[in-house]
Amino acid sequence: xxxxxxxxxxxxxxxxxxxxxxxxxxxxxHLFARHHGGRTILRIEDTDRSxxxxxxxxxxxxxxxxxxxxxxxxxxxxxxxxxxxxxERTELYRQHVDQLLAEGKAYRCFCTPEDLERSRNRQIxxxxxxxxxxxxxxxxxxxxxxxLESDCSFTVxxxxxxxxxxxxxxxxxxxxxxxxxxxDDQVLLKSDGFPTYHLANVVDDHHMRVxxxxxxxxxxxxxxxxxxxxxCFGWDAPQFAHLPLLLNQDRSKLSxxxxxxxxxxxxxxxxxxxxxxxxxxxxxxxxxxxxxLFTLHDLERDFTLDRVSKAGAxxxxxxLQWFNAQYVRSLxxxxxxxxxxxxxxxxxxxxxxxxxxxxxTTLLSSYLSLPSDIAPLLRPFSSSPIIIDDAESRxxxxxxxxxxxxxxxxxKAKAPGEWTAPAIKAMISDxxxxxxxxxxxxxxxxxxxxxxAPHGPDLGTTAEILGRDMCxxxxxxxxx
Length: 480
Known about the structure:
Blueprint: E1 7-10, H1 20-36, E2 39-42, H2 56-67, H3 90-102, E3 106-109, H4 113-125, H5 141-149, E4 155-158, E5 165-170, E6 174-179, E7 187-189, H6 197-207, E8 212-216, H7 223-233, E9 239-243, E10 246-247, H8 263-268, H9 273-281, H10 296-302, E11 313-314, H11 317-329, H12 333-346, H13 354-364, H14 391-398, H15 400-414, H16 421-435, H17 440-451, H18 459-466, H19 468-477
Parallel strand pairs: 1-2, 8-9, 10-11
Antiparallel strand pairs: 3-4, 4-7, 5-6
Helix pairs in contact: 1-10, 6-7, 9-11, 12-13, 15-16, 15-17, 15-19, 16-18
């Protein structure tokens, strides 16, 4: 098989939102295919109707598109092996179930939920592993016919070999061996006529010509069941790669109990797709060197499965914020202004004055991890009067040295001349030379009077953006 023949798929269920683990799975499939010149498939696995959430499919597609992950085939763009929504393929699954029944490789199970619960309880009481006890596996033809004629509800189960061992190679985990005796006779077709994940997954992967299945570690126990199905149908199986778990800081499995797990949550908070993709890519994969910042193109070029780790990857929100800060701070000025526009408007800043908005956001960009971080930093640039209510700043301004600094600042600010950052810095330097006041005693009262805070970005640039008139008004207000 040439690399251009490689076909991978991302096959989520529409259960409400896209988990960050799902985003990583979609990303790794995308990167693997693009690296090898192969093709990607998006398939919606919606056969579990009890978990189906209305609108989840569109939300899923929009979120993947926002993240920059595209597919060559799928529900929106079609393809030669559609439809790409499993609920539209049910007849195909039933045909394959009928084939397995006819060949004696599967059997009908007439056990009711109550029967299964009683069997499970007996096994638990006997300290045995709870699994299906194969009651219906040995039913005679006449017993089966009688139950069918009585219109008894049934599922269809796979006949798993009772003896022997399943062996396969995982591209991340290496050689794996599983005894058949620990594999349950899995349900293939549910009583409502819909296939289970196991059957539909295998049938679709075969018919869609999938060559590599890249999915989360939680699906590793299902792999022997899937390989058995490939063998029953006489099909060549794809190669499997199971990705490490995503973990909380305490190394428990990533869960909403300890933080956000939905991609939509991070999007709503202002995380940039480039930052989230960069961060997620490194949760289980490393480039073999100390690089951390990757564009999607970089990842497509460098990604290989042999550098995917077996160990679980900790989802470090502080590291994600660091990534987001790098991307926010590198945004073109116009882009950052557009993103920050809601907070600029809320602060009473004229968003039609693009040049001033660019100056403000450029000045503040180094303080931003999220675009929303700009909100409290905009206070000095609004037209509202500065109210200084913290005791420390008030004490600084009330000292005689500070009042002298502000009087000198006012006198020089009112004198003719340029009002640019370099000119303002030169003006403050002149005050230092003439008064002998320097350091915090010089800069502190000016900054507090102009911005209301003892710390902040470059004072000269801040004063230039505020404008001469506003600086004069604010300094004078502290002397009145």
